[in-house]
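Hi V.,

You were right to ask for the full record rather than a summary. Here it is.
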Amino acid sequence: MASTAQDVTLVGLCDGELDSKKHQSSYLTNKLGGHPDWLPTISRQSPRCARCGAPLTHVVQVYCPLQASPYHRNLHLFACPGAECSGRSDCWRVLRSQGLEAAAQTPSRPVAAQEAPLSATDWCDTADDWGMEEEEGDDDDGWGGGVKKGSQVQEEAAAPEAGAPAEMDVSSRLQDLNLGDSQTDVPVLRPFFISVEEELDLVGEENDLRHAQQLLKEYERREGVAVRELEGNEGGGGGEEKYEKMRARHGDAVFSRFMKKISLCPQQILRYCRGGKPLFISEPPSNMGQIVSACGSCGGSRTFELQLMPALVSLLQREDRSAEAELEFGTVLVYTCTNSCWTEGSGSAVEEFCFVQTDPDQQLFK
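Predicted structure:
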């Protein structure tokens, strides 16, 4: 049974378009769309669809380091833009990459190839802003601090050796740029920043309303009178009646529970709760425990970490605005290695597990 602290959920929200002319994103940036920003030690990945073999589109990048770990840590989610591949789990891929922090590279602090299990509590204590803590003290518009530091890290990693001609450095960077942009057949989605709020902060308002309604009901019992519900509905049960109608229409208690859970913030595009419980949009398979495969790197178990939400779908537009992306889903659940295993010095990302559920009523989020 998960502890109360482990139930803390972070909610991701779309927070403005990432304009490349004003902002330089890095692996420290949480964003949707655009090109993936890899750690300096990680080689560029070009995942393809397991069904049709087409190059996958980058959907979401999350910077999610774990406390008590010496590693920077990223999750990148990719999906196939093909219409026939929409909503299929095998047409999504999630890659986890890690890299040592500078302080962890000293001989006095050896690093094991595999880390000890880390709880969601540890992560949320110090990283609930998803890597934006370095922004303090910056004069920019609130994004400059984290972005600037990420850019500096990448520039240092790409700096030429002493005595090397400057032209060689410029040439190598241009070559890397060409390699990264050569896949013109891969749709690039418009990039947006992702901001974060604790769900508990949103729930506070609902608790205040529930408390007020409880006091109202006590007054009604004491005085023997009926008073209109605070929600503004006639008949003293509008909210429950609407909820019951939704259940009758869909015949799916799981979907109704999903809608009720996100009702405080319908615009949420991502939920993060490592080691917590996923929020299913429809009844999950009875053998879900067997469907989530073991870690392909260390063979250990996987734990739930985050999920993409239906409100994200309407934001998935091609960067050239030629057409909307052929990506539709109800929720995309991501399970990652419980130990967050990593081989020191590795230059390749580790693949994790995605499970996609379609939306019973996608039009509610359009």
